[in-house]
């Protein structure tokens, strides 16, 4: 599994309807608040995000919703893949564990199932399933990219 695999599989994620985009946008503040609450309640939070990173985590959740809304409105597989890889690299350099991503993405799936209509959830869940399924590949590819960047310094 590599970057090309991510791009290829991303191109198979079904597009969502304008109705789902609108619903996601209208519920974005609730989604962010619920995600923040869910993770802030975890007893293992510090092991997931590192010390003094709660605000960064909250910012990530808000940025996540903004990015997903942008992506589902204008899906471009390269943008999705490159952005997720960038997020994996950037947050890990700030002390986030690779275990944060399954906790976060599975959390989003639960929250979306509870907060969106069945129709909207069924349309958007393949995107989240793709991200969750590919966490090991994102970690592997971002590790390679981090090592390349570190070797340049």
From TrEMBL:
Protein name as it appears in the record: Uncharacterized protein
């Amino acid at each position: 599994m590599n970057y090309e695999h991510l791009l290829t599989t991303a191109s198979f994620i079904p597009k969502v309807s304008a109705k789902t985009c609108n619903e996601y946008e209208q519920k974005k503040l609730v989604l962010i608040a619920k995600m923040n609450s869910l993770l802030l309640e975890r007893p293992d939070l510090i092991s997931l995000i590192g010390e003094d990173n709660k605000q960064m985590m909250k910012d990530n959740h808000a940025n996540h919703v903004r990015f997903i809304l942008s992506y589902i409105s204008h899906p471009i597989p390269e943008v999705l893949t490159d952005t997720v890889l960038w997020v994996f690299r950037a947050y890990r350099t700030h002390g986030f564990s690779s275990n944060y991503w399954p906790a976060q993405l599975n959390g989003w799936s639960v929250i979306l199932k509870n907060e969106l209509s069945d129709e909207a959830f069924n349309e958007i869940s393949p995107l989240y399933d793709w991200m969750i399924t590919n966490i090991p590949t994102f970690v592997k590819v971002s590790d390679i990219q981090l090592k390349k960047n570190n070797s340049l310094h």
